[in-house]
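Appendix B, example 12.
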Amino acid sequence: MTKVKLWVSDIDGTIMNYDGSYTKRMSDLIEKIKKSDAKLVLATGRMFMGADYTARKFNLDNPVICYQGAVVRTRKEILWQKPLKNEIAQEIIDYLRKRNIHTHVYNNDILYVEDDNKKIMHDYCYNRGTTYEVVKSFDDIKLNNVPKLLGVILDENLMQEVKKDLQERYKGILTIVQSSKIYLEINDIEASKGKALDFLKEYWNLSDDEVIASGDQDNDIDLLKHAGLRACVGSNSQKLKEIAQYHLKSVDSDELVDLIESLVLCE
């Protein structure tokens, strides 16, 4: 069996709970990975600020995949990026505004909102090291280097309606995936966790068989498809379960820890 050299993992719902908690065994596992010849790369929908917050928590210094795969970067430099075209970003902002959908605009590594909904923003930022700025209008922002947009949609029927509508309107132009029950992620078609992983495989000269990927939501489907070994944590995404070889119960079950110890650390 080919030795696994890279473990690339989603954060929320995969290595830690959505409230930021994680098990001692997961923390111990990451310490073991750091001391081994394998690498752990975090792959998340979070902005770099939020991804790096978790990386620092575990003292990881590898590049992170952030903004739903639109950016691969270290603390010093951007290694790869696929931002939205400015005119497309503006179209989506206008569309979401007309639908009265709470919208996050990420522009030059700053998160902007028009609607400072305290509950939504607390839930989004809490324990993720993320800050934001409130603007009177998104029209006041000079769009430049927008890696993604996020719609926060609390109504499930509206979520499915908007997701389907945008996927049909921007087929072949945008990648539109649901990353949780209420978050709709909008990226350029060339931006995805899977394409970001492909960049890192080339960057480190790795084959698919040398990579294991883990995730829990629809936005991890492309990530798993680009890895030789694929683990689904929990039951949030039936589509993810269908492509995964390993089906693990939850973060708290530590089944992912068992799997990584077996396949990566060979314990």
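The two ends are 15 Å apart (CA to CA). The chain has nine helices and 14 strands.
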